[in-house]
Amino acid sequence: MSRRAFWATAAATLVAAGGVAGTAIAGGEPSPRRRAAEGEMRGMWLATVVNRDWPSAPGLSAAKQRAELLAHLDTAVARRLNAVIFQVRPTADALWPSPHEPWSQYLTGTQGKNPGWDPLGTAVEEAHARGLELHAWFNPYRIALHTDPSRLVASHPARKNPDWVVPYGGKLHYNPGIPAVRAFVREAMLDAVRKYPVDAVHFDDYFYPYPVAGQVFNDDAAYDGHGGSFPNRAAWRRDNIDKLVRETAAEIKVIRPGTQFGISPFGVWRNAATDVRGSDTRAGVQTYDDLYADTRKWVQENWIDYLVPQLYWNIGFAAADYAKLLPWWAETARGSGTRLYIGEALYKAGDPAQPAAWQDPAELSAHLTLARDVPEARGHVFFSAKEVGLDGIGAMARVVADHYQRPAEPPR
What is the CATH number of the domain that holds 32? Predict the structure, then answer.
């Protein structure tokens, strides 16, 4: 059954059960007719880096890994979600048989070791069988969570091209300022698009690395060789990331037309104190200045199909208030061809290290209530799959009860 047929069947089942199109749902959710017409993103991130969500530990049998993966997909269905954003290239590696990069160590415990099955291929097939979209999530430039190239498998491209690599912040990174690097990471990622009918290519918030006090990202040689036409290094770095985004978008359309391209950046583009066009925030990180990612430009230039800013703060948080960032992003997306979804910090719910607002199971549901009155906000994505299943204080259950009583098809 196709996914569109799946959703048609689901809608028919609801009507047969007494659902009446055009009527309000408990919690004030917009009518089924509106949802059917517009679609609504209800996604979750399924993180594999350091075995965050899946697999639960490296070295499990293929059968156990597969069972755990399917359980996450079943949980998504049970929570009436419609998309899973599956991390398939966490650290310059692969969760599918790639000719470019080694098998991920998070599968077997040994980088380059064949796990005996195809996680991405299985995820695509099984997600589609459940009426879920499968978005393939890639990290473009992160190589390793350490700074020792000798710990990488001998065949690793980073070992074969040491001039591509920059150690910074306790990690190894590919240098975005080298054109050959950009070409390589695109080819490595898009191999998955050639092989599998993924519904989207997805990047997260890691472009140039987050700043580390007292450290310098040493790209002097690349800047000397390629940055001559730019007024400063920051402008050159932003152009490097712009090129990655533009070129990836163009290649996706050639390889598999209809496949979406989405990005989930840190939730603050710039503070208003830095730029009058910025948000009413006092965030310590600004993507434009610190990660060299001009996320606002990507939306307004329609380079990407959707954006999921990570609005990982509670309503009323002084430095970055969810209630202020939501309308700022809505205004940014208004009139563009880029759909806006909101990234939600489910992982903070019930965490004793978080502010008091996050101890209230209703905080996350209140986010969706605010967004309901913002036409540009076309849905939400929850970080991450582990918490969608465990749901320690019932925050996800509250979201489902208040907002997801009926299934919804993703926007297209």
Answer: 3.20.20.80
